[in-house]
Structures are given as C-alpha cells and as structure tokens.
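Hi team,

Filling in the usual template for the complex we talked about on Friday. All components are listed, including any nucleic acid strands or ligand strings, so the model treats them as one assembly.

SUBMITTER: L.P.
PURPOSE: interface mapping
COMPONENTS: three
RESIDUES: 874
SEQUENCES:
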Amino acid sequence: MADTIIDKAPAAVSTAAMRRQMLKEFWFYFSENRGAVIGLFVFLALVVIAVFAPIIAPHSPFEQYRDAVLVPPIWTEGGRAGYLLGTDPVGRDILSRLIYGAQYSLFIGVFVTTLSLVGGILVGLIAGYFRGWVDTVIMRLMDIILAFPSLLLALVLVAILGPSLTNGMIAIALTLQPHFVRLTRAAVMAEKTRDYVTAARLAGAGPLRLMFRTILPNCTAPLIVQATLSFSNAILDAAALGFLGMGAQPPAPEWGTMLAEAREFILRAWWVVTFPGLAILITVLAINLMGDGLRDALDPKLKRS
Amino acid sequence: MALLQIDNLTVEFETATGWFKAVDGVSLSVQNGEVLAIVGESGSGKSVAMLAVMGLLPWTAKITADRMLFEGRDIQKISPAERRKLIGKDIAMIFQEPIASLNPCFTVGFQIEEVLRVHLGLDRQARRARAIELFKQVGLPNPEERLGSFPHQMSGGQCQRVMIAIAIACNPKLLIADEPTTALDVTIQKQILDLIMSLQAKNGMGLIMITHDMGVVAETADRVVVQYKGRKMEEADVLSLFENPKSNYTKALLAALPENATGDRLTTVSAFFDGTPEPAQGTGLGANA
Amino acid sequence: MTDNTMLEVRDIKRDYELSGGLFKPKKIIHAVKGISFKLERGKTLAIVGESGCGKSTLARMITFIDEPTAGDLLIDGKKVDTRPGRLTHEMRQKVQIVFQNPYGSLNPRQKIGDVLGEPLAINTDISAEERRHRANEMLKKVGLGPEHYNRYPHMFSGGQRQRIAIARALMLNPKLLVLDEPVSALDLSVQAQVLNLLADLQDEFNLTYVFISHDLSVVRYIADEVMVMYFGEAVEYGTRDEVFSDPKHEYTRTLFAATPRADVETIRQRIAKKKAMAEA
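RESULT (copied from the run log):
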C-alpha cells in the first residue's frame, strides 16, 4: 500500500525549510508589484526612524531656539546649517519634530488598527457564525456607523469624550471597525459552509473552537490587507483630528497638529506646512502601496498559476 | 492536408519555483471530419494545449511551437484581428462548466445572436431565425421562448446545449470540446454526447474531445492521444488503443478501470508504470495522419 | 440476523422550506421522501443517483449533520435521538463521513497531525504524545508516513488528501463510515488506489460503508447492496447482482444504458455502425 509514483509525496522537508519555502513564495508574488516593494522599504525606514528618533534627531523636538524663529530650509536663501528643514514660528527644528512625529504616527496606526481589528473580528465572527437576529442587529448597527462620514463621527465622539490623542484614537478605531466586521462576517459565512468545518463539527468541536480555531485562521488574508489600509487611514484621520485641534494637543510633534499650529504662516513660510504635509503623504502612500502588494500576495484569486 | 496540425508545442508558466512546463513538445493533428480524443488525468496539459491553439491562455504563458497550422495557415503568425476572426467562427470551443461559460447578465438569445452578428454580420431578422433553427438543432424545446431565458433559469444540460448551439452557430470546421460532460449527470451526459456526435457527423467537422473518462473516449473517438504530465505518451486509433495499448501508462490506466477489476482489488497504476513521462517504444506518431 | 444489523433507517424524510418572497407562499421541497433500509455489519450499501436526487441529504442525515424531518435512525440496534444537543458523544463517534471534495474537506491552516489529532483531543483525554502516536499509526494505515505529520494540506495531491480525510474519519474508531462520492473528484489512477484502500480498511476494522456515488462502474465494484434514488425516493433496492443483472425500475435501466462503456466490444460495434452509416 505504499505510495505509488503518480500519487507521489513531496520530498521530505523540515518545518523550517517549509516555512522558508512559503516565505519565498510570498516574496515572489509580493515583489512582482514594484510599488509594494518601494512602499515596504519606505515603511521600514519609517519604523527605523521612529525607533531611533532620539539618536537621529539633531535637536529636541520641544527646544525653542529664540534666535532662530522661522528659519527657512538650508538650501534656500537665509537657511542655517543647524536646521536642515528650517524652524517653526517658535524656533523648533522642523526635521527633529518630524522625526519624533513618526513615533506618534506609527503608534496611532498600531493602536487604532489593533483596536478596530480585534473588535471587528470578534463582532464579525459572532455575526457570521450565528446569523439570525444577532447578525441583523449587529449589521444594522454597523450600517448606521458607516452612514456617517467617518471624520464627522470621530469629531462627535471626541467632542463627547474630550479632545486628547487617546480619545481621538478610540474614536477613529470605532469608525474604522465596521469594515473589519463586514469583511470578517463575509469570510466566516463563506468558510462556514466548507466541508472541513462540517468535519470538525462531526469530530465534536463546539462553537468556540469552530469559530476561533477552525474558521478564523482561514479568514486572515483579507483582514491583513484591510488592516494595512486602515493603518494609513488611521494616520490620516488622526492628522485631521490633530489639525482640527481635537487630536494630539500642542506641543506634541504630531504631524497634523504641526500643520494646525503653522496655519497662519502658510503664506509667509511655506516650509512649516509643506514638510509635515509631505510626511503624511509619503507615509500614507507607502502603506497603501504595501497593502496593494499584500493583496496580490495573499489573495489566491489574484494569483496567476 | 490536415485541418489542424501542431508540431512540437510547448507551453510554460512562470511560478515561484521557476518555469513549469504544462505542455512539453506535443505534436498532433486532426483531419476534416475526424474525432480525436485527448485523454489524460489532471495536470496532463490536455486542456492547456488546446487553449494555446485558441489563444485563450493568459499573457504570462510562454507558447512555442515549430508549427501550428490551421488549414495550412500558421496561426502563430497571423495578426490578432485575423485570429479573432478565425476563433469562434472556424474553430469553436465548448467548456466543462456550461453555466459558468454563459454570461449571467444576458439572455441566451442575446448571446447566440451576438456571435451571429459579429462573425456572420446577419441582420436582426436573419439572426433570430438562425438562432431558433440552431436551438432546434441542439434539441432545446420551445426555442422561441428559450431565446428570452437567462442562463440561471436553465439546467446544466440545457446550458450545455446552448453552448453547443453557440459553438456551431457559424458552422465551424473544428470543434474543441473540453470535458463537455464532466459536470453533468450520466443520463444528461449521454444526451449531450449523442448530440455532439450527431452534429459532428452531419456537419462533417473535425472534433477534438478532451476528456479524462475512458468511457467517453470509447464512445466517441476515432483516434486517441494519451497525455501524461504534459507529454504525449501514445497515439493510436481507438480500437487498437483499447485492444493493444503500447505505452505502459495506457495499460495502467485501462487496468485501473473498476469494470476491468480482476479479483477483489483493483490493479493500480504502479503495477505497470513507473511514473517517467517517456513515450513507449514504437508509438506511432501520427499513425493515421 | 437482527443482532448483526449495523444501521437501520426507517421511513426517513427530510423537507426543506423555501421561504418565498413577500407575496409568494412558502414552498416545501421534499428532498428525501421516506426511505427505509437495513445494513449488516461489514457490508457496503451503495446509494446511486444523479444530482438533486437526495442522496447527499440522506448521507447528511445518517451522519447527524442534518436532522430528519421524520423517521427513525437505529445504529447498532439503538435508536438515535437526532435532536440538536441530544446526541451523545458515543453515538457521534460511531458514525463518520468522508466528503467528495478533498480540497475543501481539510482545513488549509491545520497541519496533518492536528487534523488527525483533533477528534481525539476533543473527545478523549489522551495525552498529546499518545495522540501523536495514534495519528502516525493511522497515517501508516492509509499509506502515508510519519514524515507527513507536520505538513499542510496544500502540499498534498488530491488522492493523498482523500487518504488523510479517510484517516481522520477513522481516528475515533467508528463502526459506520459514510462515503459521499469519495473518489469522484480523483483521477482514474488515484481512484483505484483509494478504492483499494477502502476495501483494505473495511477488512481490517470490519467497517460498514454507506457509499454514495453516481458512477455505476465504481458501485458495481465496491457494493454488496445497491439502492437507486430518483427524486427523493428509492426506486430500486437489492443486492448488487440483483440490481445489475435485472433492474426493475425504468429509471435504473435508463441509468445503465447511459453509462459509457470502455470495452473493446462496444467500440467495435460503434465503428461498424459508423462505417455502415458512411456507406449508406
């Protein structure tokens, strides 16, 4: 009864080699998308900058140099050697503030995404698994949340909770969460009818085991993609909240807050708004590109074989 | 001159682990009015070879062939526009999943009339008349009413009849049937096979029947090509293939049929065949050509 | 005789309710219309029919996936309470199923070892080491090896996956195995291997099979008894030889006539006919 040649087994491989193989395949599909690779490197650079901010930054982000107020960037007329991207209206080094701002942005991204991901998965699993009236109630609730412009809803929530970065992040997480609920629910409903779930049920698995051990791991691919996109959304929304004065509060070097503080100098000193704006743009773009590549690599429907 | 002649066709796909040869140096030919069966298991490249002829493979596929002649014209060399004119008109194809092969947004009448409009340029009235005639030919009851049906309102067997009607709409010289009955029930399969065979005999077209089912081969083919892992293992006329198979792989396949069981266990492929995709000695290439 | 009956089904029925829209009345579909049979220990009953005839619904009722609308199920002489929540662990362990599609029946994110160990982990308090040991034993029994223990399903071919699905079904030592088209998604050469494996396992564990299929040549090879279903009813039921040599019902005869034959005699006849046609 040994295996015959037709029904041949793949050559014996160790677990580690297998994982390497899977990683290689992932990279093959991911690297097909050049934008995604660029996005990944920009994002990695951002992480490095955020982690080593105290070492990289030439100045403290809070130190106000009274003798160097609104110094333009170094390559323009009147630029000064110590301030690469110039200084803001109270004499703080913009480059240093941007570098420290990366910490904020990444923290916001991670926190908001985790919060909305966990919440969305839980609620979506319940809706998709139990269906019936539970599902109806949950989904109508999500529809209501989605019916509001997300920034407006976040503003309302912050207005109720009080303006601070934490409250802003909670509000953004809440507005992003319905996307995860919908995705999870759709994936769970599709997977639930598959034979392997029935087989696990026949083996005696209870609802909790079926939900978390059997079904959930098979729904991760679209969730990962959505999570990267939410990551950039969170950064963008947090910056908007900061700009409106409802998010991070001055003097925190958050990019949106920096924009808000510099509003009145837009005409006189272009650099105070341009660089924080560029930082937001580049970060969001890089993460979105990366999300695109992830989708290519993880979504089997888009794979060419 | 053969209707379709393919020499040394190779189709490759790039995968994460390198280039994969789905079809490896296959040559075959079909005459006018001949039924050629290409038989093989999954992964034998039997469908890919024909999709390459039709130009239906994704752009990522690398197709090379010494020659790919249809009625003496090399279809590798003609322009895409000419190729589009050829395909669907002189070469038609039907697929395994009849319901999925029809566009769910349009009525079947619209879909068949579209083919008539594009390839034959018939006016509205002529199109309708021809469509009704075709539906009658493929045995659809109430053809006038059927024209207004959507694919989801019909059964799998009926959808396959519509697909056949579309395929023969322009009187093709070659019909390629890719597992046309695999998704259908046995009794429906019988009806559809009978239909295809009677149309083939009446119109005198060449027919390539791609299948994995030895029963279907036995019931339809004049000549058979056996493929395994992208290689041609054997080519013979149908009677000698079943009576006196040359390659070990064919022997193994026939022995594995449950109706050929001797004793209380089936003969497995390994008893005859060691898995190397090399054609047997003395396999007549183009024995009939 | 009675004490050797493994499975008895008495007038089992299953209706589906289609909720019609706002203005349409509810529609009731009778998927299985009162089927009865008895199956002896160690024997194979093949249920044949075309799509929509209710054979899969019947299989799902026998394996307690779906609840019957009416009728009784007796397993090992004991009546089974099929209402949700009333099913005992002991009963559940006695009946297992192998599905048609080996690509959908294994969890893509579960290693083979976990696939096989899961039934034991849920139903017994056997140690992890013992579970591993038993899973490896079972892998050997179905023609795979311990080296496959740590692999994921996508690394296997269709035939190997079906072996794994069979192994999983056998982990709890069931007495009755429902096989829902277990070979129809497989290539011919692999089909023969899996059918042989099923025959070997039946001999070794004295298993009782309910074998659902649409392929008459496979049924003829594997079955002791045959039931032909048509629109939810059993139109033919008897031993294999009875059914194949002397089919009573019109539909059974149609089914036999429609099955393509792959023998030399048929081909000769066909070619002769074609020649005659061409000459005429």
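MY TAKE: Confidence is low (pLDDT under 50) at residues 280-289 of chain B. Chain B has eleven helices and eleven strands.

Thanks, L.
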